[in-house]
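Appendix B, Record 12. Input sequence as logged:
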Amino acid sequence: MLKVKIVHASVFHFLIGITVIALVFGYLAYFSSSSFGQAVIKTDGVNAQKQTSIAEFSNGQKIDASGIKQAPEFNKTGSSVNINNNSQPLTMAGLKGKVVLVNFWTYSCINVLRTLPYLIDWNAKYADKGLVIVGVHAPEFEFEKNIDNVKNALQRYDIRYPVIQDNDHKIWNAYGNNYWPRMYLADDKGFIRYDKIGEGDYNQTEKVIQSLLSERNSNKGIKDIDNGNRTFPYENKSQFNSKNNISKFLAQSVDFSKIKTPELYFGNQSSSSSLGNPQGFHLGQTVTYSIPSSNSTIKPNTIYLEGQWTNNDDNVELQGDTGRILLNYSAKAVNLVAGDGDGKSQGTVYDDNSLLSSISKGVDIKNESIFIIDGPRLYNIVNHPSYSGGAHSLLIDIKGKGFQAYVFTFG
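Logged structural output:
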């Protein structure tokens, strides 16, 4: 979905798939070159090999560097605040001599969250070899600008590497970024040598990490992984630190070709609301919604509301004590980004006219198919064992004034 500054990279998987062959040959050239003479750069989802002018790197190798830019400095003013970091304020200048992975993320985005197990694993494996991961948290929603909310997310997902809060998107703009997630790898001289948009390609990304560390460390203590087309080890869920259901959920494989429902916004942040009620969306107004009585008028991949809801820019907020959300979707997993001003709301989830079965409960579902709002974040509410069920009907009964719904995302 294209937006000003806001583009979720999962939309581009179909386009990226077209360039798989070029990507494979590009990486073979990249890693087989004894002089490390070409850098594979992804720009706006398109792979390109850029020839460069000569620059000498730390192990004495010389490569063309005219087409490789220096990693921009992290903004040190305004709303860019270092969190999850007890050392001196982070700067690219201060990190010279390290291989730096700059990861743009936002904590309520499912596309981002599915990358976290890999980042956490790389941090554990390579931090003592010279890798520094810097998470740049660039909020999508207003509640993600609250540092306390971000700190809660760091604890929830067990993120221990440094994170910078980039509320004004100053670092985001310095890098010319438009996507969540996006990873840049800078070598020990501060040159950006790799640019990855979106999910996937974890095997190749780790190979770049290892190659840059080998370049830095003269190959001491770094064990290369198999360059063949074998299954990436993380596809085996047991490889992850599955200390809780959250990490197990994030480690699940996703088949984007079988997800037929796109992410659906309640507010008008993404050019228009995904509401299908005949009452429509009216910014700043409180609207009494009713779900159409005839199933024939219920459109797939469209949100329907029941009850009194205030139409805010990036969410709808329940004004009565009860309300409903209806959606016909086609996916294996359903996630809802939700919040609550009072901290007392909850939802009861029905899928295909029944309470969720034990094998289809999302990780945030409690007994009796209920999820409780404990803060503004992403809630995994449905998690079917496979995609074989096809289309499903989702109904959420809401209790509690102040319930806020932002976006549905799918897996």
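The first strand starts at residue 39 and ends at 43.
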